Amino acid sequence: MGQGVLARILAAVPPPDDPRVLVGGSHADDAGVFRLSSEEALVATVDFFTPVVDDPYLYGAIAAANSLSDVYAMGGEPLFALAVAAFPDDGKVLPLLADVMAGAVDKAREAGICIIGGHTVRDREPKFGLSVTGRVHPERMWTNRGAKPGDVIVLTKPIGTGVVTTAIKWGISPKETTDAAIRSMAALSAGPARVAREIGIHTATDVTGFGLLGHLIEVLEGSGLGAEIRLQEIPVFPGVRDLMKRRVMASLAARGSFPGASFLHARFGSPPIPGGARENRSFQKPKVRVPPLLPEEEILLLADPQTSGGLLLFVPEERAGELVNALESGGEGAWTIGRTHAMAGAEMPRVTVL
């Protein structure tokens, strides 16, 4: 669901009136938080989606990593998960659910938790994900209201998975691009979250369906800040920009080469940019200032919906170098992409792309 549509829906939902709810839906945080005591709170999230890769085992692993990411983005530690599955009642397709579950179970085990139950329904299109419960100290959770002026913004994974997964469906994604995106989507954010807690950051979020700009804006609005980000510092998966220049008729992509194919693709095709990127861009446009000659593809890339994307870490300037060094020493990605600042006025954009 698009960021703008979801914002309108949530605006009509009354906020929780239980004082034990520390984080609800008011500030578009990554998960809900419920206080159990002065020392402990539960972190709860759920996420599921249609297949993004062809291999059912990898689909399950990616879906699990994506769901777990919300707990890490809140500064929490996952405890257990429940599986959510919608699958066709088809003798050829239904057996694949066992492979999907196997991928999810192995990824959950890697995170140190178990999948202890779940729910299934019949549906024409497969969908899978997890509801994850974790824990966090009430005074140490990361929320969208926690960034401070002057924070350095660090991203832990490249962007472009929306373009790549669309290209995979169309059969046009190069192997190098596909492999890089799958490795990233299946990677847990446990390591970066642990390092961030040890170094002492102000807050974090993860980059998922609303794209890099969308999730950055949520933190900036929650914290009452603006930010400048440098386009050349933002990591992108290899081959993604080339894919965004291709024009393909999706309905003909699977047929391969045939007489006249090149003409049809060039004349009537479109690049593998998911519709969600354009929806995100439409909602985000009034809040973002971009260079006047910046190609539209670059703007859409910043709005590209991510699956199991990286963490956006907001760290005090004096700790930024230590954070980046610690992440890189642990084999994690770490790209310094920008900095937050105080808002000079309500008319100013939330994000300025340099």
Describe the overall structure.
There is one protein chain. The radius of gyration is 20 Å and the shape is globular. It contains 13 helices and 13 strands. β4 (77-87), α3 (96-110) and β5 (114-122) form a beta-alpha-beta unit. The protein is an alpha+beta fold. It folds into two domains: 16-142, PurM-like, N-terminal domain (60s Ribosomal Protein L30, Chain: A, 2-Layer Sandwich), CATH 3.30.1330; 144-354, Phosphoribosyl-aminoimidazole Synthetase, Chain A, domain 2 (Alpha-Beta Complex), CATH 3.90.650. It has helices at 3-11, 56-73, 96-110, 161-170, 175-186, 190-199, 211-223, 240-245, 250-253, 261-268, 275-284, 296-303, 317-329; strands at residues 21-23, 32-35, 41-49, 77-87, 114-122, 127-136, 152-155, 203-206, 225-229, 288-289, 311-315, 335-342, 351-353. The longest helix is centred in the N-terminal third of the chain and has 18 residues, at 56-73. A seven-stranded mixed sheet has the order 8-11-7-12-9-13-10, sandwiched between helices. Strands 1-2-3-6-4-5 form a six-stranded mixed sheet, covered by helices on one side. α2 runs parallel beside α3, α7 packs parallel to α11 and α11 packs across α12.
